[in-house]
Amino acid sequence: MSFTLNQLAQRFSGRIAGDGERQIEGLAPLDGAGPRQLAFLANPKYLTQVVSTRAAAVLITEDYFAKINSKAFCAFFIVPNPYATFARIAQYFAESVDKPPPAGVHPSAFIDPSARLAPSASIGPYTVIEANAVVGERARLDAHVFIGKGATVGEASHLYPHVTVYHGCTLGARVIAHAGAVIGSDGFGFAPDFGDENHPHDRSGEWVKIVQTGAVVIGDDVEIGANTTIDRGTMADTVIERSVKIDNLVQIAHNCRIGAYTVIAGCVGIAGSTTIGRHCMIGGAAGIIGHLILGDRVSVAAKSLVTKSLPKAGFYSSAFPAIPRSDWNRNATLMHKLDTLRARIKQLEATVFSA
Amino acid sequence: MSFTLNQLAQRFSGRIAGDGERQIEGLAPLDGAGPRQLAFLANPKYLTQVVSTRAAAVLITEDYFAKINSKAFCAFFIVPNPYATFARIAQYFAESVDKPPPAGVHPSAFIDPSARLAPSASIGPYTVIEANAVVGERARLDAHVFIGKGATVGEASHLYPHVTVYHGCTLGARVIAHAGAVIGSDGFGFAPDFGDENHPHDRSGEWVKIVQTGAVVIGDDVEIGANTTIDRGTMADTVIERSVKIDNLVQIAHNCRIGAYTVIAGCVGIAGSTTIGRHCMIGGAAGIIGHLILGDRVSVAAKSLVTKSLPKAGFYSSAFPAIPRSDWNRNATLMHKLDTLRARIKQLEATVFSA
Amino acid sequence: MSFTLNQLAQRFSGRIAGDGERQIEGLAPLDGAGPRQLAFLANPKYLTQVVSTRAAAVLITEDYFAKINSKAFCAFFIVPNPYATFARIAQYFAESVDKPPPAGVHPSAFIDPSARLAPSASIGPYTVIEANAVVGERARLDAHVFIGKGATVGEASHLYPHVTVYHGCTLGARVIAHAGAVIGSDGFGFAPDFGDENHPHDRSGEWVKIVQTGAVVIGDDVEIGANTTIDRGTMADTVIERSVKIDNLVQIAHNCRIGAYTVIAGCVGIAGSTTIGRHCMIGGAAGIIGHLILGDRVSVAAKSLVTKSLPKAGFYSSAFPAIPRSDWNRNATLMHKLDTLRARIKQLEATVFSA
Fold it and tell me: What are the residue boundaries of the UDP-3-O-[3-hydroxymyristoyl] glucosamine N-acyltransferase non-repeat region domain, all occurrences included (chains A, B, C) (predicted)?
């Protein structure tokens, strides 16, 4: 697969400086690119690499083009956002190579007669689609996918093998769900019924399950990582707004709402009924307890724990970096004695400053 | 689906004050309920909402009924535990609407001839049940479930799609396992065999797998969340006692024992051979290292790490709340200097108090 | 199944002291073994148990044999590494009892005609193998496994139910992947394209997906836990070197490289492009941020967060042990005031020592 620079510039709205007839066969980083590859400059610290690159052309902004043009040998592909255009061209090349499977239903799939499948959808082997479910145009369901009763998968969505969508859940257009993702499992709620509180051991107790009658609603362009779980709501729905990106092994509990464009890294856990704003960034393995509200553009550092609402945009943290264990342990022990250290300082102050 | 208050009161052992012939069509919170819905009061801080609610009736205790009765317009449904009764009535409504699938084996399921399935069990498409496995009455196995050789699923259990039960594991009655849960995978154990310790790089080393010949035994009324994993024991079994509730993405390692009624929130990890008592509450993303013993009624805060046995009931924590990053980092750095701060305090004390 | 001590000694290269004709039917710990079982001594603190054990024989080193021989009643099976030999004999017994499934393809499996399966491979029900995939001799794929286009599974590997191997990924020989493991899902990468940075709210933003054209390459003798996820690389591959052992619910992001013999406990998350050396030990629920380099023989404590490269071998930590909540909270609050405590110490020093 090969395109000229001019062809790419026309398709991706850029301006070419230099030889527009150069053939581009793929993409690569500045320092690894060969003479038939396209590279990009997004970070000024790599500006000198533009001078030495062997790439056929470099995606660049007007500003950096003006600075480096006279010193470089490559052609330039000038766009407002080189990294985003790089990503779009990389998608274009990938699609040219990796054709999606043909439309139609694999003979081994089990589709309830009342389900409505768009003719251009592609349904893989052993996939199960239950009663009254809806699958949109050009949607792609790989092998072993499960779509429960009355669930909806929007157009051009791609569900990888072993994805489970429980009954009544809704996925928008162009949603990607990676293998093993679970959408719509029961929220975790139980009413205790252990008898007389004064004699709690007197009878066998019981947790009464709170039925989870809400669903999960997922907006357009959401991506959901492998083995990530999103629980259905108790009475209202759990909502993932458009263009939210969720990494692998993330847990989102019942009745959460995640605002548009928010990005959630791997291993994050978000407890029930928490609302997260738009354009937030939640670092890997962070935790957020239930019933909180995070405003727009809140960022949380990896492995931090959010225990209070954070209405204001900003960067929040509560994580410690690892250091040699003996140093850590010596100091960690003192952490439990901060109150006595403070008391000793107070007493010193009383003595010294009253003197 | 609709019931009168009197009908519900008879079925769920309550007393009605007010018009017992009112029709109830569903349940809702106090502030959102309409005139054909039933609400509940479990927390006294919502007492004033009972006065203003539009609900047909409110589930309430005798005590709160006595306090609020004269001021309210709704009927009352008086029970000892309004929240638990609310949960039971919600289940009743949900079951009336969402009929379970019919008994029988889907033609696409693969059942080994030596497996014993109760006639009232329901087995979904593409489910696999291996030799000598047993499935109890009214058990429901959804699509793509895997039951290994000699495993047992108790009566009225419900296994959602893509649940894997390894060979020889036992699930009690009314167990719920959500999509992707894995029960009985190998415990994580290896014997190092890297040759001469003084020349560890001299030969290619090897981890020798410890075969995991125990199983997992799960009691009645246990619920297991989506993509949660419970490893089989090394020689003895991993045991989950009755009515334990486990959320999504939890890891329980080999040879653990989890006591009855204990609740484990999402993303928790429990290392091997740890025993947890009854009625414990393990907060989200907490970690518990191996070979510990936690007593009954131990609660662990979210994201905390338990490194020592905790025989005494109580609430334990080691987690920090996130604060603005610059504040956090300024102080986190000092954490590594607590020992020098203490030394400086000591020296001050020596000077000041010896004077 | 039963073997004499002499038979086992011949197969596993040991020397017998005592009656070599004793029959061994199984293995057990020193304190639980019966007269037809074999136990082992790996830790000198159990030396006295060797005197009292009822085991037929004890695996032991020459050194400990010399110390304890005269006091004990059992036979001895003398080897350089008793624990590793114990593990190997336990495997031998397990294999004698639990025969692997016969070679061949289950009639319900779906195999693309262009896939190449070794005749001795065993393929379970509903397993899907896509075009040009390769499955080696004696490989065992259980039910519901998915092998994507052009992926390779090495000889004698064992993939448990619901394992997903994405297109183009490679597994070496004797790889074990437990149920629900996902190998080769997309790395988590997006280019922001939200328009004018000065007016970020003016238009609907967009995250442009970075296509992930690398794969995952897994070496020989790797074990991967249940529901663990390993992402494919962006342009280059994610690499897991030989004999790496990975527990359940671990997330390994795109373009990581994990060095040979490294062990990763459950619930660990490793962010993108991080390289980990050989013989490392990563404790449960530890986190490692992206683009770091950890040297050989680095150990990280459970729940710690690595934020900087750690080139030097050693043990690193940043985790606090849980203590009673009231004690914890009283001191945790002071953590946020360490800078003012230090300032107070400084002022005291200025006053006291300048006096």
Answer: 22-91
